[in-house]
Amino acid sequence: MSTPRTLIISPNWIGDAVMAQPLLQLLRKQHPSRPIDVLAPPSVAPVWRAMKEVDSVLVTPFRHGALQLRERWNYAQVLRQRGYADAYVLPNTLKYALIPWLAGIPERVGYKGEMRYGLLNRLHHDDIPPRPMVSFYAALADAPRDRLRANVQRPTLTVSRDQSDAARAQHGLVPGRPLVMFAPGAEFGSAKRWPASHFAALAREIMQENPDAQVALLGSPKDREVCEEIVALARADSVRVSNLAGATKLDEAVALIASADAVVSNDSGLLHIASALNRPVLAIYGPTDPAHAPPFSDMAKSLSLRLDCAPCRERECPLGHHACMRKLSADMVWHELRPMLD
Questions:
Q1: What is the Cα–Cα distance from 272 to 91, expressed in whole angstroms?
Q2: Mind telling me which residue stretches traverse the membrane in this protein (predicted)?
Q3: Alpha-carbon distance 241 to 289, whole Å?
Q4: Beta strands of 35-89 (E only): which ranges?
Q5: What does the mean pLDDT of the chain come to?
Q6: Phi/psi-derived region of residue 151, left when phi > 0, alpha when psi is between -120 and 50, beta in every other case
Q7: Side-chain-facing half-sphere of 72: CA atoms under 13 Å
């Protein structure tokens, strides 16, 4: 008889996938010999491949947002042949809970989400305040209860030195020279973005202090425009900044971050990747709560003005002034970043 396996159904967001990694640490301790597979969207799969607890990453064949009931039934029959003993459904939607149920996986674990009674048979409730995301996912390793697990280990990703060196060489970054990565994007909305002019001013501060440093911008193709704005503003001050937004695959971005001397990021997936790689991280928060998903690096700082109107958790500033980000100046960020680079 083959060894039973565990299936993790991944969230659709990069940051959430990173913050779910401590759950895998706990499951590995509970069943040391049980392989863990992850079913993940293509955009998130590279993050799971950087987790040492993962045996196989299966890429979802479904369109985003579509029910595709026939396709889910067919894929569930493929999963049935892999011999899963349990499945942990991390998204809160009904359609993802259908998959392990259709596959006949005996133990199906997750939060109630979209009224998933029956589809999940170890049902946790998601109305426990407060809910920092690392503890929220890690609690699924326990029996359902009215509080989140405390003292959870931090998320950890692993990248080899060869991978980092290859990524630097591929994207024109010089080995041996200091590298500061900026992540100016945010998939959630413009409210989470520190202004481009502030990023450009911070690049100027870095280069004035250390002319040998390299500053590079990371992000998705959607972030290319704001990154071009930063490059143009920096160029006006005779500061060279490399724009890699949209030019790297996610696994390459992970490898580049692993080699960074520091990372300055909005509240985004790349922030959580940098934290899980234990890089020095400076995280900038405006409309979101730093306590909800903070960085866990040995050297990390969360910056928030904590205005009366924050955290509003809105995609765009509902008051129109974006003061939570605009008033967080480049000088304030440089004051915290400089000791990290020293």
A1: 18
A2: none
A3: 30
A4: 36-40, 54-59, 84-89
A5: 93
A6: left
A7: 17
| Interval 169-202: pLDDT, tens | 999 999 889 999 999 988 777 889 999 999 999 9
Closest to 33 (Cα-Cα) out of 58, 11, 4, 59: 4
| Paired strand residues for 124 | 111
| Global pTM value | 0.91
Which residues, 6 or more positions from 126, have their beta carbon under 8 angstroms from its beta carbon?
92, 111, 112, 113, 136
Neighbour-count burial for 173-202, b at 16+ CB within 10 Å, e otherwise: beeeeebbbbbbbbebeebbbbbbebbbbb
One-letter amino acid of 65:
G
Residue type, 143: A
Contact in structure between 119 and 97 (CB atoms under 8 Å)? yes
Q: What is the DSSP annotation of 132-186? A: -HHHHHHGGGSPP-SSPPSSPPPP-----HHHHHHHHHHTTPPTTS-EEEEE---
Compute the distance between CA of residue 266 and CA of residue 284 in angstroms, rounded to an integer. 5
% of the chain beyond a pLDDT of 90: 79
Q: Is the pLDDT of residue 63 over 80?
A: no
Q: How confident is the model at residue 61 (pLDDT cuts 50, 70, 90)?
A: confident
Nearest to 27 by CA among 112, 117, 122, 137: 137
**Residue 249 near residue 268, CB atoms below 8 Å:** no
Selection from 146, 142, 119, 153 nearest residue 20 by Cα: 153
According to DSSP, residue 223 is labeled G
Domains of the chain (ranges, CATH numbers): 5-141 (3.40.50.2000), 169-341 (3.40.50.2000)
* CA distance linking residue 160 with residue 6, whole number of Å: 26
Q: Are 49 and 57 in contact (CB under 8 A)?
A: yes
Dist CA 147 CA 320 (whole Å)? 37
